[in-house]
Design brief:
The chain is α+β, with helices and mostly antiparallel strands. Helix content is about 20%, strand content about 35%. It contains six helices and 18 strands. The protein has helices at about 15-25, 40-50, 65-80, 105-115, 185, 270-275; strands at about 1-5, 35, 60-65, 85-90, 115-120, 120-130, 135-140, 140-145, 150-160, 160-170, 170-175, 200-205, 215-220, 225, 235-240, 240-245, 245-255, 260-265. The longest helix has 14 residues, at about 65-80.
Length: about 280
């Protein structure tokens, strides 16, 4: 990962068009923009065209890479406790969370037109067989996965009520609307519209109950998974890219205290992409 920024003390240098005009009129400090790039070539091209602020000073962050790099950047913001809007430029394959990269375009102009979308992450609290408790955020999904050739056996609890005494499967996941078109969709889970205030509970290769295909739940739902016979059938829990091995119990809920803001070009917004995914053969 490469970070490009202006020299210390220069900070507020690159402005959004409207904010820049306001700064001239009434002295309001212009918006500062930081830049993160996954490749040196992309970093050099954008560095030459713009001036940038440091991450600690920036009001907006431009991320150039793929969806994985975007998720990594958002997780770093959550860890640092300083969350600002993020605008992605796609250099990867799918680029679902990104905007199209067009060489020579004015990034400042595109930011001035961008529309914002709020994404609420999940919070996963995993308790291991040894009693250790670990809490991680997840922007796309929380997954429980079998660690060996043995199928996982899980008890599923929703808002304090056991809804599945025994789910026999390769795993199970809880997905946000933003993550519903990722692993969740590959596991035949439902696509959730952005702003639907729902989460998807989706089994991965379920064996028993054979006909259960998951559930759509209000985002305020608290979900708890208990691993049955964790010694013989060990299970790991994964919050996006962070894994906890040998879990005994996992609790998942939406975290409303740390909303994330993603910026998209008006002609290709995130909710449009989520809707379009339902018609891809």
């Amino acid at each position: 990962m490469f970070v490009i920024y202006g020299p210390p003390g220069t900070g507020k240098t690159t402005t959004l068009l409207n904010m820049g005009e306001k700064a001239i009129d009434d002295g309001t400090p212009p918006t500062s923009i930081a830049f993160l790039a996954f490749t040196r070539k992309a970093a050099r091209e954008v560095q030459a065209a713009h001036e940038w602020a440091s991450l600690d000073e920036a009001d907006i962050v431009v991320v150039m890479g793929g969806d994985g790099f975007m998720l990594q950047t958002l997780h770093q913001m959550l860890e640092r406790g300083r969350i600002v809007p993020v605008y992605g430029l796609n250099l990867g394959t799918v680029g679902f969370l990104m905007n199209l990269w067009r060489s020579g375009d004015s990034i400042v102009h595109r930011l001035d037109r961008a529309q914002s979308f709020e994404v609420l992450p999940l919070s996963m609290t995993a308790t291991t067989m040894s009693g250790e408790r670990v809490t991680y955020p997840a922007i796309n999904e929380v997954s429980l996965l079998r660690e060996t050739r043995q199928t996982a056996k899980l008890e599923v609890e929703v808002n304090g009520r056991i809804v599945l005494p025994e789910l026999v499967c390769d795993g199970v996941l809880v997905a946000t609307p933003a993550g519903s078109t990722a692993y969740n969709l590959s596991a035949h889970g439902p696509i959730l519209p952005l702003g639907s205030a729902l989460v998807a509970l989706t089994p991965i290769s379920p064996f028993r109950p054979r006909r259960w295909r998951g559930a759509i739940l209000p985002e305020a739902t608290r979900i708890r998974f208990s691993v049955l016979n964790p010694v013989k059938r060990p299970v790991s829990a994964v919050a996006d890219q962070r894994e906890v091995r040998d879990v005994a119990q996992v609790e998942v809920r939406i975290d409303r205290t740390t909303p994330l803001t993603l910026l998209f070009d008006p002609e290709h917004t995130l909710d449009d992409r989520i809707a379009a995914e339902q018609f891809i053969a």
